[in-house]
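Let us practice reading a record.
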Amino acid sequence: MIDKAAYENVTLPKRNIMRAVLSGFSQKCPNCNKGSIFGKFLKVNHQCSACGEELHHHRADDAPPYFTIFVVGHVILPLMMAIEIAYMPAIWIHVALWLPMTLLMCAWLLPRIKGALIGVQWANYMHGFNPHHNEADEYPTSQIPNA
């Protein structure tokens, strides 16, 4: 077990949060802005292919879908209401217009928001992105699933 007190006074270099978020939003490595974060649609690469930065430490969990729904809802709903008030189209027109637009917007935004959140975690040395972090200290053996 690592002594946490030994690392309390270690100063890590400051990372540019905005650059990391923009790199993540563009689905690039927050460290080098060259390698890809994702190997598949939402599957995060174990490490960056360009610089070797380990990316598997992220803990995005349910935040990307939550923020995606939040953003898409705040864009689609006002547009839907404006069209309804201005033109009063039939329900089938609403369904034909807004359902595909909502699905496409969610599919486009979800990986970008997840990448941005990974960028935030990387820039703030959260979870395993901190070189002095020990996951064993965070989760005692009795709480690790499948342990």
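A brief commentary: Residues 67 and 113 are 7 Å apart (CA to CA).
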